[in-house]
Design goal:
This is Peptidase C51 domain-containing protein. It comes from Leucobacter aridicollis. InterPro entries: CHAP_dom (IPR007921). The chain has a domain of 116 residues: endopeptidase fold (from Nostoc punctiforme) (Alpha-Beta Complex). The chain has four helices and six strands; from the N terminus they run H-H-H-H-E-E-E-E-E-E. The protein is globular.
Length: 197
């Protein structure tokens, strides 16, 4: 085995004059200022802004056939489907299927908040038949953490409880069932949020 190493003569390499000053571009700086002066009025807390937004939307009509969506959910009572990421037995996938069966434009996806793109966010106390109630993590609302759950509201009782249809409760069962006197009971660190398509 033979190895040959070679080197070009120093005179054969092209050289160029280089200094840091000649390589630096000429930059002109302009002064910018950000005014954070809001005047003397105190800012409203975010909770009041959300509450105002929610109550302003509570009378909005659904954009789909609510009865057809509820009928689709009712037809699945007592059945079970596969669970796992995106599987038909997952609670949110089931709710999407039922809303879409009524012609609802549930087009969002990805996380527990972006799933509701195009829907109106409401307080759970404003939920009506055809709305969806979701348990949302307070600190990480866009994360699929254990405790996120989705139900379809099928009725509102005089005592303020809901009639709902849900899937995958208990977790992993993919089982579709109704509850005629449901009260949102989000786990610690979660809140219940209603959505209307």
């Amino acid at each position: 085995m033979t190895f040959a190493l070679g080197a070009a003569p120093a005179g054969a390499i092209e050289t160029e004059e280089f200094t840091a000053a000649s390589a630096a571009p000429t930059i002109s700086l302009t002064t910018q200022a950000l005014s954070t002066d809001t005047g003397t009025a105190p800012l409203a807390p975010i909770s009041s802004v959300l509450a105002e937004s929610e109550s302003a939307n509570s009378s909005a009509a659904h954009g789909f056939d609510v009865d057809a969506a509820i009928a689709a959910a009712t037809a699945e009572l007592g059945t079970s489907r596969a669970t796992g990421w995106g599987a038909p037995g997952e609670c949110i996938v089931s709710a999407q299927r039922w809303i879409r069966a009524g012609g609802g434009a549930w087009t969002g996806g990805g996380d527990p908040v972006s799933n509701y793109t195009g829907a109106l966010r409401l307080s759970p106390t404003e939920a009506q038949p055809g709305d969806v109630i979701q348990y949302e993590h307070l600190q990480f609302p866009t994360s699929w953490v254990s405790g996120v759950h989705t139900v379809l509201v099928t009725g509102v009782n005089d005592d303020g409880t809901y009639q709902i249809i849900e899937s995958n409760n208990p977790t992993g069962s993919g089982y579709v069932q109704a509850d005629e006197s449901w009260v949102p009971k989000p786990p610690a660190g979660f809140q219940a949020v209603a959505w209307r398509f």
